[in-house]
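Predict structure. Chain length: 626.
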Amino acid sequence: MKNISPHSTLRLAALAMLFIAATWTARAATTMELDPAQISLGDSAQLTVRTSGNGGDAVNPPHVAGLEFQAVGQSSEIQIINGAMTSTSSVVYEVTAQAPGTYTIPAMGAGARPLTLQVLPSGAARSAPVANQNGQNSWSGPSPSLPTPATVAPSAGATHMMANGNAFVRMEVPKRDLYVGETVPVDIQVGLRAGLAATLNGLPTLNADAFTLNKLTTKPEQTEEEINGEPFTILTWHSALAAIKPGDFSLAVETPVTVQIRTRPQGLPMDDDNSPFNSSFFQNFFGTVTKKDLTLTNDPVAVKVQALPTAGQPVDFSGAVGKFTVTSELSATTASTGDPLTLRLKISGAGSFDRVNSSILGNLNGWKTYHPTVKFTPADAVGYGGEKVFEQAVIPMQSGHLTLPALTFTYFNPDTQKYETATAAPTSIEVTPGSGSTVAANSPASASTATTPPVPAAPATTADGLRADRVDRETGAATLLPLYFQPGFLLSQALLALGFLASWVWWQLRERAANDPRLLQRREQWQQVTACLKQMKDAAAQRDTGTFFLAARAALQHGLALRWNLDPQAVTETEIKARLNGSSENLRRVFELADEIAYSGHQPASADFKAWDKTVRDAVKDLETV
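Prediction complete.
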């Protein structure tokens, strides 16, 4: 065997140590990236962990109190350079926080460094882009492709854009200085980026107890709007805001939604915008969809509410604030004493109609008056403008030329900041004496023409001049008991009374059933269900998947609303999951597909209409038996 010199031995040992060091370095190379490094509560960040080398250890999510890590993607890559093979694996986690604060994510492998995640309160302002621990920019505010809140809301409303720029809330208040009792129209808008699948879990709610939202429309208007080149779906609710106590307030609304977030697929060359892997097809096919419950809110709107002035407040002021006009009319211009008439007071304008009250006329000489009735006819969907009519029955008790006094109504005008009184013109009427039985009986004509009642003829006498003192048996009655005491007559009257009572009870039950709000609502709901089922049938015949699933969701909403005593719009996928305990996965899937069609515009290319139609009809049939 050939001898090896000591110098050669040292060289071989050095090469072996270098090889071992290189192998160890390849095994231990781990990098971590966090994007963004600053989020708001309710948003999420993306943590990417890459492990390079041969035989790398498995990566497990870290344990950080207050943070939740959910794996949303995993990829691996193998490279061979000059005969040397190197493997790289990546795991992507979605990081969400349970409370605001600063969290430290520990290193998850050799060579990695801890990362810091800052979580701000919901709605708090975020800073500009900052460099993360790996030297890359991490945007901590709205997406650079989207406008900032100041450019999103050029109107008087305030807008709060989510950190990822997918949604915003906007509240438009026409004025910021109000008086107690004053009502103003407001618009609440929720904007969702086109393509974002979202489900509304309830109506917008107000966070201030000093205001009320009157008649919030249950179904929002849906429009399309382009914001700096990005298409958004805008949902708009119209309402009327009423102030109920004085002070300085920050006004905001909250809207609960569930969004479906599709994460970007890992391991595909998507850095190039012209790459075919960056198309929506590969994004939808390889990406992972996760659901998240969010509460959208707008930036608070500062509103000042002043108390109504007490100086000069009229005694007949009922609390109405706005601008109003009044008119009055009588149902006839001529009448007779004792004829009933109707006096109408019409109050028109805009403002707090719930505080518009009037007793019209009280006790008035020569007239008999009754308590008035009220009817309000709104001029818009929220009742901010309209007309309130007070009707009062009046009866003239004396003849002649009578005049009803002028009717007035007092209100507070917020524009002039003064109490004002609107007056209707007096009403005149000619009343003639009425004809009655008392007058006719006392008149001379009736006394002179009165006739004497006929004198009954004297009973016949016998030949000897004497009256008969016995009953003729041939023409006499079988009994002297009066007819109304005889059993047959009593029985017939009792049967008639029972028949009348039964008819009256049947009529009352029928009227009650016809006017029962619950029965009317149930009948209307089932009519809606029937109409939706017919729409499903027509859509299936035309192979229209979008209309089919929207009609299927509407049918289930109306049917389940009857079972659960809810508003149909309140029946959502979340409500079904909570109440049915996951036992009706097909019903939840119907809602998922309908939501994707309604809010993202995505329509399935095909569907098993027969199977889905049977699923919905079986569910509706089960609801009919409840």
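Summary: The two ends are 96 Å apart (CA to CA).
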